[in-house]
Amino acid sequence: MIARLAIRVFTLVLALALSVAWGGINGLIFFVFCVAVIGVSTIREWRRIRSPQSTTLGGLARLAVGILLTALMVRHLWSDPDALLRSAAIGGYEGIARWSMKHGASPNGGLSAQIEPPLYLAAEHRHVGMIKTLVAAGAGTSRVNRTGIPVVAVAAQMGFTDVVDEPSKRGADLNQQSSKDGSTALMLAAESGKAETLRFLLAHNVPVDQRDRANRTALIYGATNPEVVQLLLAAHGNPDVAGNNGVTALMEAAARNVPGSVEILLKGGADRSKKNTDGMTALDVANRNGATKAADLLRQ
Fold this sequence. Notes:
By secondary structure, the protein is mainly α. It has helices at about 1-20, 25-50, 55-80, 80-90, 95-100, 120-125, 130-135, 150-160, 160-170, 185-190, 195-205, 220, 225-235, 250-255, 260-265, 280-290, 290-300.
């Protein structure tokens, strides 16, 4: 029992030393936090001691280490408002986000290209309220993540239509292209088969035949999903657009042996005689890949 008490006293003294070194109101908050954690753990320890299964000294030592590590993490976050804001964005803690921005955190997360901006983190974790908080504080809706993908495109890829909608209300460009490959929200939503998000984007007049840097359109991105193909053709997407390699949506669907997409594309007027840069038609591609179901449709 004395050894357990000594460990707690040591932990408390160390927490006090760290708080004094930090100083000010932040140091006080940190120390109060440590006292609260140690107090709760002490109560739990006392209950265990009174029970038939007593806590071992080793377990108590691990608890003390855990408390210290948690406290040090909290201290670090409180001393770095930008890091605290990013953590709040991930968790959706709007109150902490407002506090961190009041104490110097940038709603845009700084200028480093190696750090994800808070708005992206909030979008990735579907925190619409956090997005509102960040945009109201001045976060740029055109910010991109570390790989150059815009916030709305990231949300569209995940099918978070409500997250796509919020930045659009604040002036975000729903057709903003990725600085990496020129892809857009429509293309990424098509690729991941997010039909609801596609409908939202098309209803907001996003260009259906916008091309990326490889000259691919959303129809090529989503060629393996019959529902996506149907939606894009209904929005007057051109089925015969080819990328730099000459591959059309029909060839893509044939290569992956997706007869549903092949049938819809053919009914939508896709040219089965077009050839890619290797001189192959969609039927040739299907035969090469052993895509028998797609090949049978293309022979009709």
